[in-house]
Amino acid sequence: MQNVAIADQIDELHDPQTFITKYIWSQDHKVIAIQYGLTAIFVGLIALALSGLMRLQLGFPDAFDFINPSDYLQFVTMHGMIMVIYLLTALLLGGFGNYLIPLMIGARDMVFPFLNMLSYWFYLVSVIVLLTSFFVPGGPTGAGWTLYPPQAILPGTPGYDWGIILMLVSLAIFIVAFTMGGLNYVTTVLQARTHGMTLMRMPLTIWGIFTATVLGLLAFPALLVSAIMMMLDKTLGTSFFMPALVSLGENLDYSGGSPILFQHLFWFFGHPEVYIVALPAFGMVSDVLATHARKSIFGYRMMVWAIVVIGGLSFFVWAHHMYVSGMDPAFGFFFATTTLIIAVPTAIKVYNWVLTLWKGNIQLTVPMLFAIGFIFTFTHGGLTGLFLGNVTIDLPLSDTYFVVAHFHMVMGVSPIMVLFAAIYHWYPLLTGKMFDERLGKIHFWFTFLGTYAIYLPMHYLGFLGVPRRYFAMGSMDFIPDSAQTLNQSITISALIVGFSQLIFLYNVFVSLRNGKPAGHNPWGATSLEWQTPDVPPRHGNWGPKLPQVYRWAYDYGVPGAKEDFIPQNHPVTDSERTAGEHDA
Amino acid sequence: MTIETDTSTTYTDPGVDGMVSDWSSDRQTFDLPWGKLMMWIFLLSDTFIFSVFLTGYMNVRLSQTATWPNTSEVFALEIAGTHLPLILIAIMTFVLITSSGTMAMAVNFAYNGDRRKTAILMGATALLGASFVGMQAFEWTKLIGEGVRPWGNPMGSPQFGAAFFMITGFHGLHVTAGVIYLSIVARKVARGDYEKKGYAIVEITGLYWHFVDLVWVFIFAFFYLW
Questions:
Q1: For residue A7, what pLDDT is reported?
Q2: Does the beta-carbon distance from B3 to A195 stay under 8 Å?
Q3: What is the pTM of this model?
Q4: pLDDT in tens, A280-325
Q5: pLDDT confidence of A345, banded at 50, 70, 90?
């Protein structure tokens, strides 16, 4: 039988009828996206609260009796794991990936909606298992988000019994959920584009999400397998990661395993994970910048190649997380080199964002503020990455607050700045309402300036050699008293930033009811998701006929055009033809 | 079926630009049903899972200090008074490879529209798969009877039992899932559920099955023969 492209197939779409099929067991990618988004933001708030508790302890040691050392370690662990996996990965791919892929490429839905629905429900189960670990004997695991064996499963580490098991089970379920969603995202982008939507006309958002999903499908297996092996070590007493050990004066039954193997497997997942979070953010910020600067993205093709090259290289840099674990200098040299090479395409992207702004008609809307804020935080976080990528500079800085500051700037704050930009940017499409511009700006300034108040001083603490993950510093000769003053100031800033997120939540929820109707395409954007017949888009997205795409996604400020932008589904006019091909 | 489209990307350059524009393809990148592409991508991901299992196994095999048991003796059987090294594994491998053959024939008959033969051949594939799992269960029982456990064994390195149960167990789960998958699809083929949609599903099922067989070849080479 002849294969017919999805865009050419005759639709048999049945609108879901009941409340349950419409909003709960929904197979509509938009509903699934919102389910993903709300769940992710909910666990994200828990992780934010945990970071507040950590900061209270660090800023004011001894002042809070209810935080003891093992609690502190559990806060650190759960904060890290939730933020990286259950918030960022889930919100960027499960949330924005689900919402934007079909709309931006002109499809009616994902290719396999049922699997997509299952993906969300598995994700929810993984979140529930994760949160259950707060209520089991011993509490959640306190092994740090990297879960390094042998300590993760041995007495002395909080949650070594129940906590770690639930953590590993939850991760395994999450990976299954991600795989089900990820297969859909990749296949949909490859096979379900509408007429005229070639790969090189896709908005960069889709390129970022697509590449990140491919990375996820290839990187999560390493985490899955290491979770299985650690689980066997814990429950059956195998020795994959466990060498012969003496614990509390007793010889343990383990022998012959390799803890370094776990580190390799973990970081073979862990480093691509950084880009699983970063690449969708790169893509979305490119679209926000172009739209609100009313100017085509600078160097579209180079941006696409940069995303793909970063994605590919990200599989060859993992051991730069392991310099202090000890390795052959030749390997250190290799991984330092690949790490520095990855800075090249990344720098290309930063230059292109800045050049997109150059001579643009910049609209300082809330999404734009967050997008520009991202350029700052990402550049700063990225520069410190060059320090840590070099073996000799990494050794003294490793496991200090310098590292904490680095990865929070580059993969904590930066993707979150983009997430805020994206939420504000697409809020009118999701809800049909405008948010409160003034509250949004207040939210931005608190978040952006607060970020610097928190993380700039941490670099300095790191240079002093203040170690991370410690419950309290005590009195160490090499740490001056002023470090404590700095810690207090960081804590106060962190609490202010934390509470200022309430402005965001208030704005999002109150605008649902009180916001002004947004109408069609309030930002004047060219990409397809804004050209739907209904706002918010209905089930099936496009009404009776799929859109036809004639041009790339960045026709802003076209000379001679009626408005300062031309949507992707507008045919090329004669005056354009004579003015020369404006096509990617 | 084609629809008139004005893509206005008509690159004639033979170089990189031409290649990019070929690949950037209107509507679909591969001329395949989406299900087949999705299965290929899943198998790529699953390849990484098994690669990591095997890499992990090889790593612990190199890092452990005790002696590694001699696999050809551990997996030997006495049949009719003759000592045959690795005989059971050889039979299992043969059965699994044979099942790939019946699967390939099923795909051929499916595209020729012969529902009955397709269903029978898929059923045969499932049966061969089930007998593979059965022999694996026998092998597990035998080894457990000889005192091999995930945490240790009388023949030497404890990692031997750990890796054995983990890798063959995970592969066995894949085969079992495949048997169930094959049976469901075979039943639907026999009922005529795919008359309208076409028989790509048989080929998709086949892709999964061949993959499981291929993985076994690697497990055979790296675990049993090494």
A1: 82
A2: yes
A3: 0.94
A4: 999 999 999 999 999 999 999 999 999 999 999 999 999 999 999 9
A5: very high
Contact call for B27 and A224, based on CB within 8 A: no
CATH topology of domain B29-225: Four Helix Bundle (Hemerythrin (Met), subunit A) (1.20.120)
DSSP assignments along A195-231, one per residue: TT--GGGS-HHHHHHHHHHHHHHHHHHHHHHHHHHHH
- Chain A: give the shortest CA distance to residue B171, in Å: 13
Q: Is residue A459 part of a domain?
A: no
pLDDT at res. B7? 47
Per-residue b or e along A397-433, where b marks 16 or more CB atoms closer than 10 Å to that residue's CB = bbbbbbbbbbbbbbbbbbbbbbbbbbbbbbbbbbbbb
Binned at pLDDT 50, 70 and 90, residue A184 comes out as very high
On the question of pLDDT at B3 being above 90, the answer is no
Contact yes or no for B60 and A258 at CB 8 A:
yes
Q: Is the pLDDT of residue B57 over 90?
A: yes
Tell me how close the Cα of B48 comes to any Cα of chain A, in angstroms: 6
Domain that holds residue A160: 24-193
The letter for the amino acid at A48 is L
Residue A495 has pLDDT above 50, yes or no: yes
d(C-alpha B27, C-alpha B29), whole Å = 7
Residue A5 lies in a domain: no
Q: Which of A222-236, A326-340, A569-583, B180-194 has the lowest mean pLDDT?
A: A569-583
Average pLDDT over residues B125-138: 96
User: Is residue A516 situated within a structural domain?
Assistant: no
Distances (CA, A) of A126 to A89, A131, A187, B204: 13, 9, 24, 29
Q: How far is CA A110 from the centre of its chain?
A: 21
Of A3, A201, A256, the CB nearest to B63: A256
Residues of B in Cβ contact (< 8 Å) with A220: 45
Which CATH number belongs to the domain containing residue A123 in this structure? 1.20.210.10
Q: Do B63 and A257 touch (CB under 8 A)?
A: yes
Rounded CA-CA distance A318/A412 in Å is 18
Question: What residue type is assigned to position B95 of the chain?
Answer: V
Optimal mutation site among B11, B23, B27, interface A, most CBs of chain A within 10 A: B27
Residue of B nearest to A216 (CA): B45
Task: Please answer yes or no on whether B42 and A183 come within 8 Å at the CB atom.
Answer: yes
Distance from the B201 Cα atom to the nearest Cα atom in chain A, whole angstroms: 12
In angstroms, what CA-CA distances link A29 with A64, A419, A423, B82? 45, 19, 17, 62
Interface with B, mutate which of A119, A176, A198 (most B CBs under 10 A): A198
pLDDT band at A574 (very low <50, low <70, confident <90, very high): confident
B53, A222: Cβ pair inside 8 Å? Answer: no
Residue A542 lies in a domain: no
Report the gap between the CA of B28 and the closest CA in chain A (Å). Answer: 4
Local structure of residue A9 (DSSP, 8 states): S
Q: Specify the number of domains making up chain A.
A: 1
> What was the ipTM of the complex prediction?
0.93
Q: Of A100-114, A253-267, A532-546, B206-220, give the lowest mean pLDDT range.
A: A532-546
State residue A247's pLDDT score: 82
Cβ pairs A/B, distance under 8 A? 170
Q: For residue B159, what is the nearest residue in chain A, using CA coordinates? A: A239
- Tell me the pLDDT of chain A averaged across its residues: 93
